[in-house]
Amino acid sequence: MTVQQGMKKNDTYSQSFKALFRNLLPFVKPYKGMIAGTLLLTLIGSFAAQVNPLLVNETINRVEELLRQPDPIVNGMRLLLIISAIMLANELLNIGIQFGQKYFGEKIRIQVGSDLSQKAVDRLLTYKMSFFAESDNQTGYLETRINRGVESLIRLVQNFFLDILPLFSTAVIALVVMFNANMYVGLMALVIIPVYFFVSQRQAYRLKGWRMQLRGQRERKNHGLINIIDSITVIKSFVREKTEGEKQYELQMEMLDNQLQTRRTSYVFESLKSFIQQIGVVLIIILTVYLVLNGQMGIGAIMMHIMLFRNVSAPISQLHRIYDQVNDALIYADGFFDVLDNDDAVEVGGDIKAKDVEGQFEVNNVNFTYPNGKKALTDVSLTLEKEKTTAIVGLSGAGKSTLINLLCKFYKPDNGVIKLDGIELEDYENGSLRDNIGLVLQKNHIFKGTVYDNILYGKLDATHDEVIEASEKAFLHEQVLLLPEGYNTDASNLSGGQQQRIAIARLFLKNPPIIFLDEPTASLDAIATEHIKMSLDAIKEGRTVVIISHSLSQIVEADVIHVLKDGYLVESGSHENLYKINGEYRKIFDASARSLNLDKMIDTIAV
Ligand SMILES: Nc1ncnc2c1ncn2[C@@H]1O[C@H](COP(=O)(O)OP(=O)(O)OP(=O)(O)O)[C@@H](O)[C@H]1O
């Protein structure tokens, strides 16, 4: 059970806070030297903060005495000089302390923030595909959770060192000084604090639910925005700008309502706290004046106690802010550490390094269900012969891409075994296994950057000549030369077909013994398809190739064809054999042939 799951079960404030502290500790620990320095400065600062009230007390009492002496001005000058010197020196000390505190506090914040962000990135990269397939973890949701989490945590760290700690240590020392001056005055100040804490805690408790809701709304809003940007062509072509705008507006209104509720509650509690604080000031004044009139202390004590009480009550007046920040951190950190501590999502691999791979796959009784519960493969058993080309055929949703996902070890079968060269896929070290696999999809991701860098992604240490050669093999080179900036052109500006060729060039550069092609020529024009087919035919030699394609020419050439239907393997064999069986393959083949209008084509070619 992760810390966060525990937090959800025992959803009490202090337990959540403890969990937050535990989670944050490893990130703060590396800076313990700096933290120790900041704490020392804080302690010195807290003592320095009591100097002024004590001096004021001393000054007023001495002035009162001087007034009773014959030559008060002459005697008073010395006192004035000493007091001014101490006050100025104290102020200089304070400035130095605050500078050090702020500087170290900021430094700790920046460093912890960058460590948290990097950790999130590093962790995400280790997670299984199934983690990203979960609806909660889609782009936008995940992004908001991580960004908000880091933001709120670093704000908490910063404020802890800049606000919370100095204020509270000042408060504790001021309280000790008050007790030292008079026990009843100290007690009076002490009594106010728990009341204030209680009210602040109630406020935090009331606000927590709304803040949680707000977090969900923010994630949805972010996701919605990203969706709009991604699907702007579809939105415009269906003239759905208004509908999309309304969806966002509804969410915006929900958020607005939520934020107003939060503010309303905050104002009610703020007023209550302010009143309680004022009661404290009044009580301190009454008690001190009584003690002064009673002759138990000098008149300077009135001013001193007010100033000391201000030192005690300063953190109290900040308490709501601190609670807000801690709450924010608790809410957003919850989601953040959920992402970070998801040990179950970490992709585990075996110890065997895939070397000199021959490329023979055995799939035995494999079942697979996606995280959303969709069963995509049922009891699939097949062999992918090494150095042969296998085509996977089936209607949409039959499970073809899913099978490739399992062969790449992106997902783990529910049960059943997949072996490569006689070794279970599970036992291979993931990176080394995937180094031996080249994957070209129907729609391939193009990274932000130049055409050159996008091809280079296939082999980061490739030479310039190797990149150009791969580009030539993918029939991309000539087209790149026509671009205004050649290989330095932003790859995202290329057409779908050109981007597809980048993916194929990457494959040539990677040069792996196993190749999976998931509709590799789907977005290419006829000439490019023919070119790429020739290139792929050349690269197929001596490699294990699995091709998913709706293109008959690519299917009929395969050595073996496996036919999937609704997640079941229904037929296997050569094109000729499967055609003769007159089953699912024949049905798909005939339909594809009919869609090509072969009769008309043959007539045309004959003429
Ligand atoms: N990430 C996912 N999460 C949940 N279900 C999925 C996911 N990917 C695919 N599926 C479902 O699994 C089933 C098989 O999908 P798959 O992509 O393997 O089909 P396919 O045969 O490759 O189809 P197509 O030819 O349309 O690409 C489908 O019903 C699909 O809806």
UniProtKB/TrEMBL annotation:
Keyword Transit peptide annotated: no
Q: What is the annotated signal peptide range for this record?
A: none
Membrane-spanning residues where? 156-177, 183-199, 281-308
Question: Where is it mainly found?
Answer: membrane
Q: Which GO terms describe its molecular function?
A: ABC-type oligopeptide transporter activity; ATP binding; ATP hydrolysis activity
Protein name per Swiss-Prot or TrEMBL: ABC transporter
Compartments (UniProt record):
Cell membrane
The ABC transporter domain, residue ranges? 361-591
Any idea where the ABC transmembrane type-1 domain is?
Answer: 36-328
Q: Membrane topology per the record?
A: Multi-pass membrane protein
Q: Which CDD domains match?
A: ABC_6TM_exporters
GO (cellular component) term, any one: plasma membrane
PROSITE patterns referenced in this protein's UniProt entry, alphabetically: ABC_TM1F (PS50929), ABC_TRANSPORTER_1 (PS00211), ABC_TRANSPORTER_2 (PS50893)
